Each structure stands twice: as structure tokens, then as C-alpha cells.
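Subject — a protein and its fold
Fields — amino acid sequence, C-alpha cells
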Amino acid sequence: MLQKLSIRNYALIDTLDIEFDKGLNIITGETGAGKSIILGALSLILGQRAESKYFFSQNKKCVIEGVFLLKDEKLTPVFELNDLDFLSETILRREISSDGKSRSFINDTPVNLTVLKQIGEYLIDIHSQHATQEINDSEFQLLIVDSLANHSSLLGSYRIAFKKLKQDNLLLKELIEKANEARSKQDYEQFLFNELEQAGLKEGEQEELEQELEKLTHAESIKRGLLNASALLAENEISAASLLKEASLQLQSIEKFDPEINVLYERLRSTIIELKDIADETSVIENKTLHSAERLSIIQQRLDLLYTLQQKHRVTNNSELLVVQQKLADSLTQLISSDEQIETLKKNIDLLKLELTKQANELSANRKKSIKVVETATCKTLHQVGMPNAKLVLNHQVISELNKDGLDEIQLLFSANAGQAPAPVNKVASGGELSRLMLAIKSLLAKHTSLPTIIFDEIDTGISGETALKVGKVIADLGNDMQILSITHLPQIAAKGNSHYFVYKNEESNKTTTGIRKLNSEERVITIAEMLSGKNPGASALQNAKELLG
């Protein structure tokens, strides 16, 4: 229930603090005194948009705070879903600066307007004479039936699964679009991949071929150089080998006379051996160096292919070509994988549709059972509020395509008078009839939901006398199970309240302000008497007021 409402700097209110009681709280006051202002301030902490032009003073911010006492632990998951602590005393606060910037808090935790509104919807339902338009809304009409079908858990499970179905369908569409786009490139990418695969690319091959090409191209120069070197080293009469051998003999003949000469002799012998090895290897290389036009042609053709492929793929070497080949392979593999993913997702969607259809059929069966209960209970309340011939019909139709609510459409038809065929409410109901119909429906909903507070804002439009007494009794009975705040201009309804608050205007220093106070017993008698007969009520009006108050 709403325990306390604090308003700072809003419309005609500078500062206002009001505490409400459980049961039926009546709010009355003269026209224009500011009853709607209090309701407007309350709507701000329920997530409604704000405009700074309605501030009492443009020099300071507007602050609205509501303290709610919550006993229903069923609201805990709603708080947890938004990372909020569920407290038995929960505070909703809204701060709005003069530049229009707004901040919202739940139990001092900053939240956005969406969360504030979502939580607020579980705490208070504001029903005004203008809100009766929602009765024509198809979702609201379905809500009436669902509230009595006792399948909130099943409906919640269905909606979660339906949300997943929508997500899966979006993912499927995205995958198909990507697959089609990839498939349009597939033939070309397959051609490029086959071309690279047939080329038989190898790491380091290009460098080896380029080196071999260099040798083959200069084979004659290489052979000539090797032959000349071999001759100079060992084959000519006066070769390096023969000269070193002669020098070796000279050192050998005198080595015995000086140890240092012996060392030189041994070093020269080693040099002669190394020189002989060099000469031999030079001959070997010369012998195997051949000029092969055929091999040269093969290498040139191979390198031409590699260079062409590199130019085609805008790379500079074989290693980068191999990277391109792997990317093409991955792309082609991914397309195959994507096709498999699409088929798997299609199967999952089909299975999910089957499960949703099963749940939707169960919801539909529950709704069919509750329709008669809704019709009977609503008509009973309508009879109690002075509409003995009222008739409510809920037409139920099963649709072909699943939506977030299942497979059902509900159309509410209404007739207030005998002999009048039930028709859509907006075509047949007067303002007073519409208010009483909505009261009957809200009364029914309140008994089957955990909503702690409901506000009736002048829903008694178009009724009076005995009918007003009956409406007051229905509202009072509703107050036995929940907190009701009823803004009314009818004394018959005002007298039914457990508590009575009076909204008034103050004019000081050329400024008009709105205030509210809780009336005591004597003040209630006078206020209700004034509602009956106007200012300065006579003895009969006062007596009538006392009788209404019981």
C-alpha cells in the first residue's frame, strides 16, 4: 500500500506530505482545488514523462517520493530481475530539474524510467474516467480473462519461449541472408581455391627455384671459372700445388736445425692437403654444372605461374599465397557449416513451435473455462451498481498464427439495457455505464491479482442517488482486500471511506498553493453535508451526512 506521498515544487504545490491509511481512502475538494495535481505528482513516480513548465518554482528542482509498504513476496522476482533489493518498505523517488533532466530511484538505487514504470505497475493501478478507453483495447480484454484463468506461470513460460522463437527466427533470417551472400561468391571462391590447390604450393619453393634458375642461367660462366681455378690450383705445370710442394721440400731439408722451421713445415703440409681438397671439390662442382635448356624452361614456367598467382591475389611471395589459400578453404568450409547450422536451427524452431502450440492450446482451454466466470462475476457487480439488465459477452476466437499471448483473441461486447444486443463498448455505453463497467472489471481483477493499491479518479461520472450508493458499497467492499484511493465528488461514495482527505487552495502573498489534510469525524460530517447541499449546510444536510456516514 501507499503509506506516504511527499511532493516538492510541483504545479501549485510547494511542499506537501500526506500519509494514507489502508482500506478506502477518500479524496475530495472543490473543483480546481488540485485533486488532479496530486494524482499527476503520483504518476511521476510511476514513470510518466515530466515537463518543467509545471513546476511551482523554476529556481529549484521538483522531488516526488512515495513510500510503499509491501507484504506480497510475489513481487520479489520483479525486483531481482532489475537487480533491486526487495524491501517491505520500498521508496520510489523522482527528481526533475528545471532544465527537464530527470533522475529516478528505487530504495536509493538509480534506475531508468522504464524500470520505474515497470515496478510502479506492480504497486498502483490508476483508473480515471479517461482510462475507461483501455477497455476497448484487445490486450486489456485478454488480460481480464487471463487474470481469472489462474495460469500466470504457464503464460510466463509461454512468453519466454515465444520471445526465443522470435529471436531464433531473426537469427535464421540473418544466417540465410549471409549464406545467400556467401553462395553468390562461392563459385568464384571455389575456382580460386582450386587454382591454388592445383598449383601445389610449397613453403620455400619459390626461393629454391629462383636460386636454381640463377645457376642454370650462368652455367657456362660458372664452369669456366671453376676450370680456371682448378688449373691454377693443381693442374698447370706451375700451379699453386706444385709451388707449395717445392716450398715444403725446402723447409723439410732444414727443419732439423730450428724447431720454429718445423712448425712452419707442418703448417705448410696442412695447407697443401687443404688446397688439394679445394681443387678436387672444384672439379666435382665443375663436372656436375650442366646447362639444361629443358630444366631452365621448367623452372621458368613454374616461377611464371607463382608470379601470376601472386599478382592476381596481390601478394609478394609463396607464404602469403598459402595464407590466401587457407582463407578460401575456411570460407568454403564455413558455408557448409552455415548450411548445417541453418538446418539445425530450422529443426529447433519447428520443435519450439510444436511446444508453443501445445502451451497455447492449454492457455486457450483455460481461457474458455474462465470466460463464463468473468461474464457472470462482472454482471453480478453491474447488477449491484444499478444496472440490472446489463450483459457482458466475451467472444473468444482462435487465430491461426502464434503471437505473444498464444492463439486467442477476445472481444468484449456489452449491453446495458434489456432488448439491446451486446456490441463493442465504445458504441453502446454512456459515460456513467462505462465507469460502472470498468469498476466491475477492476473489482474482479483486484481480487485475482496481487496489486496492493488502486486509485479511482472520479469514475463516478454520470451517476447519482441510489446508484452512487451502490457504487460506493462496491468500492468499500473492494477496500476490505486492498488499499483504495478514490477521488470523488459524490457524497454517497465519500461517506464509505475509512479515511477522508480534503484538498484545498491557499492564497497568500499573491500566490496560490494547493494543500491537503486528513479530516476528523466532525470535519467529515460538514464536508459531506457541503457535498450534499453546498456551503453553509443546514440541519437536514448535516443529518443526512451523519446518516450516510452511519
